Amino acid sequence: MELSGKVAIVTGAGRGLGRAYAEALARNGAQVVVNDVDGVAEEVAASIGGRAVIAPVGSTETADLLVAAAVEEFGRLDVMVTNAGVLRDRVLWKMSDDDFDTVIDVHLRGTFTCARAAAVRMREQGTGGRLVLVSSPAGQRGNFGQTNYSAAKAGIAAMARTWALELARSDIAVNAVVPVAATEMTRTIPAFAPLIEESERTGAPLPQWVRRDEGLGTVEDVAGLIVYLASDAAKGVTGQAIGIGGDRLALWAHPAEKQALFADGGWSADAIAERFGEFEPESYGIPQPVAP
């Protein structure tokens, strides 16, 4: 997949999934601005011939700094990957304002400010571009103890759909990626934690059924989707939520009416109570993996 001549920014690229994204983009020819909150960004940038920007995402100032670094160092911007994130897991009744605001600021506001700055630059260039927004299964289905994270990741998928509409005339494709990989973040998800811990304890790779049925693998397993979405091969792919992990590639459905009932003259509370049982309820939460 040839990315020579393209310039990308990857936020939260010092470790984990973000580092895998930055390294994969560079291997395929892109020039990469590596962002993170500490000096590890400089190590990654040096190893791939990129440019490091050490700053926390969320503010407009950081977003503008990232875009300016790409333009100053490499002359343009073609791809923005909004990957940076933090966790502050608590059940609802124990979650503080700071727990909520910190996660929303980094994930949701950070995605917004970075995507906005990138879109402004890409529209000025007039040659199109790619916004790759990193969501999560928690944003699609909810997850225990992750009010803040689930809300942010659901919002990111919604922004991808909205921006795909708004930026279509500028030839800027916008997609949400829903990755699943063995990282410090997925270690906090009860459904995946035992699988990751067992693999690390034994040194054995994740079982085939985990890679296929659960779509859980390494960070490197996910990076190919980022490279594809950054490439010319993905022209026309926009407004989608795409899952990847292990051996599994999936297209997530967008929210839609599942069933509809009708009552002449409208619905009273009693009428709803009488007929609501005709609906088939949706499931929620990330299912616990079950070995075959």
UniProtKB/TrEMBL annotation:
Origin, by domain of life?
Bacteria
Q: Where is the Ketoreductase domain?
A: 6-183
Q: Which keywords fit this entry according to its UniProt record?
A: Oxidoreductase
Matching entries from PROSITE patterns are given as: ADH_SHORT
- Tell me where the transmembrane regions lie: none
Parts forming coiled coils? none
Similarity comment: Belongs to the short-chain dehydrogenases/reductases (SDR) family.
Q: What is this protein called?
A: Dehydrogenase
Q: What is the lineage of its organism?
A: Bacteria, Bacillati, Actinomycetota, Actinomycetes, Pseudonocardiales
